[in-house]
Amino acid sequence: MQKTVTTTWIILIILTISSALIFKLDGSYVTTVILILSALKFLGISFQFMDMNKAHIAWKTIIISFITVFVMGLLLIVA
Amino acid sequence: MQTQQINHKNFYFPPGGILIWIIIFLELLTFGIALIAMFYYGNQDLEGFNSSRLKLNTTYGMLNTLFLLTSGYFMAVSVTALKKGDKRNFNKLLFYTVLFGILFLCLKSLEYYEKLSEGIGIAYNTFFTFYWMLTLFHVIHVVVGLVILISVYFGIRKETSNTTIEDVEASAAFWHMCDLIWIMLFPVIYLIF
């Protein structure tokens, strides 16, 4: 359990630093990549840190739906 | 201290309890709608939002993300320690959770001080209205979270503590909610455009 949480924390740190580095690049894909990385971090926190991987499937579906709608909403505005 | 394990597969008993999750979703929805509104206004005034964003320090934003993620990590492992009945380790890990939360607030205060010194307040322009509203609202949540964690820290040390594992899980869920909100704020305010 603790090993999984530690691995998740390391991945979250790497994703955060990657986002800050990608932000300095030029290109239309930058926004999409940063938002996808943020969505992955969001899911990492909710499923590993908040133990939602142990919750009822309805809760998992709500979390995944929420972050998907949020990211899609932002991407639709950019498009 | 009750450490009875709960079956979280039951819809009515998610980790932390159903009430805290209703609060979490309402908070996420509120911040989500505000961020989409900010993004929409930013798309209408790309130049204004871009020049405003350049006034922000991305390194501060990234460091604050790292502080909150590390704090969240200590919170998660502290709950695991408590479930194993290791109260001493739980208290130590909870102390680190609070410490990184305080580091977040210190860096945020420095950032606010710099902005106010430059004369950038809430009425500076649309971008900074969103910036101040959203980040201050988030800071209030962090302060409330820290108060809850400090009360858990001192409460659980008592010999006759009546704090249950559910109480600790609910406090942890509230603290992780601050991480989730920041994960949504960081890219939209500091990185994108």
TrEMBL record, chain B:
Domain Heme-copper oxidase subunit III family profile: residue ranges: 1-193
Keywords assigned by UniProt, alphabetized: Membrane, Transmembrane, Transmembrane helix
Topology in membrane: Multi-pass membrane protein
Entry-linked InterPro entries: Cyt_c/ubiquinol_Oxase_su3, Cyt_c_oxidase-like_su3, Cyt_c_oxidase_su3-like_sf, Cyt_c_oxidase_su3_a-hlx
Main localization (coarse): membrane
The keyword Membrane is assigned to this record: yes
Matching Gene3D superfamilies: Cytochrome c oxidase, subunit III, four-helix bundle
Subcellular localization: Cell membrane; Membrane
Pfam families linked: COX3
Family: Belongs to the cytochrome c oxidase subunit 3 family.
UniProt protein name: Cytochrome c oxidase subunit 3
Annotated source species: Snuella sedimenti
